[in-house]
């Protein structure tokens, strides 16, 4: 068990800053901060650093290179055992540091054992829609003209025309699509690289049907009101249309895209996502959510208010009970629609046999164990 925990922030104007520490009596020199930070400048992740007679277990991530979470370990601590648990705590602290450093109560978090698991597949899918270029590339690959595959060189030229920047890096722009598993980038020859769409993704708000069923059985006191709220959200409005992302008029498309981005922000937020995941099990009191997530009360409460403002959760009995109003879902599916386009590109000699063979092999290998 760590004897102390502290957060380092590298500020471009002031250098290393000790942003948070527990206990408050902890003393760390500027030289210590520099020695801790150096390994993280080379490689993010977990590091064990020796400072005189003290072992420091530290953690950073590529997304926030200026932050490092540090745990001062006891002499008899088993570092290999503690590292897996403390890595989850460090992920939580970095997430809070990114959103609001003031929400971090180190003593409370260490006592509760609060932590965050690694990013789920659903969160990676949601993250695709939070960058300016990845959704453009995905839409391009989905088009009938491209039919799921294109050379990296051609994609780079196309993207530069779309965003109007000579400094556009297609490898960086496409990274969220690759890390989520939607796209693969492969070398066809020593000089020819191609981008292949192997999974597509559908992001939308689903009706919380499982939660409603559980509410009917376990919380009959709120069931009717809960059912009415869900029906009001998904039911037809004054125009006769309800929320249905699979049936859209042209003028509705932009509104749905904006809503998908709003939902994606909340799913990609790992704290919000943990609260959503807990509420998928059914309506809960604030204390039950705290137990399910192992987050401090202040963090859970703030997340619930943010989710409520985005019509993802709702509350009953003066916020004593919380439930999903809409269930934000990001799920992948096989892009079968590209098969016709692949055949057309082959017949018209727009693609050669090696390109087509590689794409079909990638699709088969991607979906062989999941179909």
Q: Quick gist of this model?
A:
The protein is α+β, with helices and mostly antiparallel strands and 371 residues long. It has helices at residues 30-42, 79-99, 106-112, 121-127, 134-142, 152-163, 170-173, 175-179, 209-218, 220-234, 253-268, 270-279, 286-293, 297-309, 338-347, 353-367, and strands at 4-11, 15-22, 45-51, 54-60, 67-73, 149-151, 183-187, 193-197, 200-206, 284-285, 313-316, 321-324, 327-333.
Can you put this structure into words, describing what you see?
The chain is an alpha+beta fold. The protein folds into three domains: 4-112, Beta-Lactamase, CATH 3.30.450; 122-199 and 335-367, Winged helix-like DNA-binding domain superfamily/Winged helix DNA-binding domain (Arc Repressor Mutant, subunit A, Orthogonal Bundle), CATH 1.10.10.10; 202-237 and 251-331, Orthogonal Bundle (Arc Repressor Mutant, subunit A). The chain is built from 16 helices and 13 strands. The chain has helices at 30-42, 79-99, 106-112, 121-127, 134-142, 152-163, 170-173, 175-179, 209-218, 220-234, 253-268, 270-279, 286-293, 297-309, 338-347, 353-367; strands spanning 4-11, 15-22, 45-51, 54-60, 67-73, 149-151, 183-187, 193-197, 200-206, 284-285, 313-316, 321-324, 327-333. It has a five-stranded antiparallel beta sheet with strand order 2-1-5-4-3. A three-stranded antiparallel beta sheet has the order 6-8-7. Strand 3 and strand 4 form a beta hairpin.
């Amino acid at each position: 068990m760590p004897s102390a925990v502290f957060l380092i922030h590298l500020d471009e104007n002031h250098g290393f800053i000790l942003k948070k520490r527990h206990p408050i009596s902890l003393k760390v020199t500027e030289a210590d901060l520099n020695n801790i930070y150096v390994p993280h400048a080379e490689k993010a992740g977990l590091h064990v650093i020796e400072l005189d007679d003290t072992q420091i277990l530290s953690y950073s991530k590529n997304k926030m290179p200026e932050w490092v979470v540090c745990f001062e370990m006891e002499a008899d601590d088993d570092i290999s055992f503690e590292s897996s648990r403390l890595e989850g705590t460090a992920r939580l602290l970095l997430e809070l540091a990114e959103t609001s450093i003031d929400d971090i109560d180190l003593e409370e978090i260490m006592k509760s054992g609060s932590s965050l698991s690694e990013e789920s597949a659903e969160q990676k899918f949601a993250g695709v829609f939070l960058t300016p270029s990845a959704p453009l590339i995905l839409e391009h690959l989905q088009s009938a003209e491209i039919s799921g595959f294109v050379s990296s060189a051609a994609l780079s030229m196309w993207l530069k025309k779309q965003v109007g920047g000579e400094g556009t890096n297609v490898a960086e722009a496409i990274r969220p699509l690759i890390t989520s598993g939607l796209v693969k980038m492969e070398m066809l020859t020593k000089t020819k690289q191609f981008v292949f769409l192997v999974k597509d993704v559908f992001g939308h708000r689903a009706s919380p049907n499982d939660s409603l069923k559980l509410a009917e059985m376990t919380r009959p006191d709120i069931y009717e009101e809960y059912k009415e709220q869900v029906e009001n959200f998904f039911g037809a409005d004054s125009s006769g249309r309800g929320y249905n992302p699979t049936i859209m008029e042209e003028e509705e498309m932009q509104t749905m895209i904006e809503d998908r981005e709003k939902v994606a922000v909340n799913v990609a937020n790992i704290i919000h996502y943990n609260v959503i995941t807990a509420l998928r099990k059914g309506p809960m009191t604030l204390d039950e959510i705290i137990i399910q997530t192992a987050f401090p009360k202040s963090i859970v409460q703030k997340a619930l208010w943010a989710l409520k403002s985005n019509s993802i959760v709702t509350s009953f009995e003066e916020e004593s009970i919380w439930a999903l109003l809409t269930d934000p879902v990001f799920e992948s599916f096989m892009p079968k629609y590209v098969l016709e386009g692949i055949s057309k590109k082959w017949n018209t000699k727009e693609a050669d046999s090696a390109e087509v063979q590689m794409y079909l092999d990638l699709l088969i290998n991607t979906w062989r164990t999941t179909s």
